[in-house]
Amino acid sequence: MKKIVLMGNPNVGKSVFFSRLTGANVIASNYPGTTVDFSKGRICLGNEGHEIIDAPGTYSLEPSNKAEEVALDMFNRADLVINVVDATNLERNLYLTLQILEKKKPVILALNMWDEAGHTGILIDIKKLERVLGIPVVPTVALSGEGISALVHRIDEARPAESIGPMGEDDRWIKIGEVIRDVQQVTHRHHTLRDWLSEASIRPLTGFPIALAVLFAALWLVSFIGESLITHIFDPLFDLYTPFAMDLSAWLGPGFLQALLIGNLIDGQIDYVQSMGLLTTGIYVPFAMVLPYIVAFYLVLAVFEDSGYLPRLATLTDTLFHRFGMHGFGIIPVFLGLGCNVPGVLATRSLETKKQRFIAATLIAISVPCMAKNAMVFGILGPYGIGYIVLVFATLIIVFITSGLILNRLIKGDSPEICLEIPPYRQPDTKTVVKKTWMRIRWFLEEAIPFLFLGVLLINILYTAGVVDWLGTIFAPVIQGLFGLPKEATSALLIGFLRKDLAVGMLLPLGMSPMQLVIATTLLTVYFPCVGTFAVMFKELGIRDMIKATAFMGGTALVVGTVMRIVLLGI
Amino acid sequence: MTQPITSLETGKTAVIVRLDGGHLFRKKMGEMGIREDKTIRVVAIHPFHGPVVVEIDGREITLGRHMAEHIIVGDTA
Questions:
Q1: Which of A12, A77, A110, A432 holds its CA 20 to 30 A away from the CA of A224?
Q2: Cross-chain Cβ contact B62/A319 below 8 Å
Q3: Average model confidence (pLDDT) across chain A
């Protein structure tokens, strides 16, 4: 069994290629740095099965961030390399190609985005390119699948390039110059509407108004889709389910099983948020309160990712993010973190230094609320008025900015400048967007449901065992004294480690004022990440930095909670 | 006359004559397609010492101000 590795510059379509070759689904987007880890799949050639690996993109074999380190590691283990090259940008892409060829591994070259090259007036002589490089070259369009089977058919022709030996950097560029003169013809291209839009959205004067409009539209779209799904689909479904649950409750009769499965009846009725039974709150929270917003968010995110807008947003936020010890690319992990903190923290791998990664991961953990939690905040604070929701998010933005400014001074190390390729705008493909959203929804359900059930189970056990009262008394000086919250809120913070959405739900029966709810839901983001985020931070940062981050979170929570009490409650 | 691209007006095009920097800087720029003798266009210069967006080979690249200041070009075309 051979190890086949897909290598290439960032954003040339390796992940789309991988999905095409293996049938496995991996996330692909239109910005450099989507893939930060490798994915493995299987492919059958003839009668033999081979392992195929999708590596993160890299500009050279000398890595400059963690994702590129992964790429180099995968390359070193490869028996055969499929070098995916952006045909619209052959000259620059050939630098990595030459470096790969110098290592004498069998290589086949996929000249991807072949259609786009044609549209932009770039002509490449494939036969000549094969001859000068000494390896097979196949034109492909990974998005539509064109040329993929031709490539698979020719994989066994992959061979080490005989005529290319190790050379220095300058010689490499001279060689590339020769190759380009030999094989490529570029006809002049007129500026199109797409170019105009691209420039308008990246220039400061026009870019910032466009960014505001785009973000506002995105926010509106997420809440519109989310609310519509709840009112027209999920709530009606649960209305159908209620009589069945009530029957079950009556049949079970009072006792442990009723308490566990149905939970507390409120005025003799099931209250899906407050009852805290496995078959009531345990399924209502994930399906009818959180899922609709998850669907909405990931649909909108996919359109953002595939259009190519995110790198432009990164350019616009660069100046601001420098104050926080990162550069503009830091907005991308933050954006992903708004869906779920776990992929957000993982995406920090595309930042170059330890300092940048530490700051980005810590800021995500303390001030970027995930969609599951947001959905519950909308659901619970919404009835009191939009002002309270705005208050939560405004506080989190202040926490983000202040923490960023502080961490930039506190953390030693370099914050290199941005150096980011801006991909051309592309029209998101409906099928790809739907597929990507579905993958993420499935991932959410697989991750969330077990933890929600565990959370509901734990709440029941802790209440029955009296642990909740006991913890409440211990933490009362902080929760009551500093934050001005009822001491029972302690249990919500405890459960928040498992599921933040469920924790928000637990606040409801405590009879708090809207302002107290604002404080509690804000603190639920700030005080500590959930278990999944904690695990991935631990893995990415290491134990020492994780302890540092934890100390910072604890300190921030104490300060934020106290200040909010004084400002919002006036006591 | 040579000058850093940051002193060009937005929208202007010029040829790179020199990359003022060490090996690592030259390598990083090279990987992005920014090399001597290439034609480069300034797409945007962000205020408050912000980033500079350039276009080279029909592709836009965002660079930190400090990096951009070390890309030296000849007269504008």
A1: A432
A2: no
A3: 91
Structural tokens at position A258: 């009723």
Taking the Cβ of residue B61 and every Cβ of chain A, the question of whether any pair is shorter than 8 Å is answered with yes
Helix A354-367 vs helix A543-564: crossing angle, to nearest 10:
40
pTM: 0.90
Would you say B39 and B56 are in contact if contact means Cβ atoms under 8 Å apart? yes
Residues (pLDDT < 70) of chain B are: 77
Q: Which token pair is A497?
A: 């480690």
B28 has a chain A CB within 8 A of its CB: yes
Close Cβ partners of A541 (under 8 Å, ≥ 6 residues apart)? A357, A358, A361, A549
Closest chain A residue to B63, measured at CA: A419
Cβ pair A421:B67 closer than 8 A: no
- With the CA atoms of A412, A413, A419 and A424 taken in that order, what torsion angle do they form, in degrees rounded to the nearest 10? -60
Q: What interface predicted TM-score (ipTM) does this complex get? A: 0.95
Q: Identify the pLDDT of residue A276.
A: 83
- Say how far apart CA A512 and CA A514 lie, in whole Å: 6
Residue A234 CB partners (closer than 8 Å, separation 6+): A287, A288, A291, A292
Residues recorded for chain A = 571
Q: How far apart are CA A22 and CA A40, in angstroms?
A: 9
Cβ neighbours of residue A422 under 8 Å, at least 6 residues apart? Answer: A198, A202, A308, A311, A312, A315, B53, B59, B60, B61, B62
Can you give the pLDDT at residue B77?
A: 66
Two tokens, residue B35: 């090399």
Closest by Cα among B48, B52, B64 to B7: B52
| CA dist., res. A169 & res. B71, Å (int) | 19
Q: What is the rounded CA–CA span in Å between residue B34 and residue A421?
A: 12
Q: Which chain A residues are within 8 Å of B16, Cβ to Cβ?
A: none
Element (H, E) at A48: strand A48-54
Question: Of how many residues is chain B composed?
Answer: 77
All residues of chain B having their beta carbon less than 8 Å from the beta carbon of residue A99 are none
Chain A contact for B71 (CB, 8 A cutoff): no
Q: How much is the average pLDDT of A136-162?
A: 92
Q: What is the pLDDT of residues A293-323, one digit of tens each?
A: 999 999 999 999 999 999 999 999 999 999 9
Residue B50 forms contact with A (CB below 8 Å): yes
Tell me, yes or no, if B40 comes closer than 8 A to chain A by beta carbon.
no
SS3 state of residue A428: coil
Which of A83, A75, A60, A68 minimizes the C-alpha distance to A161?
A83
Give the pLDDT band of residue A38 (cuts 50, 70, 90): confident
Residues in chain B closer than 8 A to A419 (CB atoms): 28, 32, 61-64, 67
d(CA A331, CA A317): 7
Q: What is the pLDDT of residues A402-422, one digit of tens each?
A: 999 999 999 999 889 999 999
Chain A CB contacts of B58 below 8 Å: 88-89, 120, 189
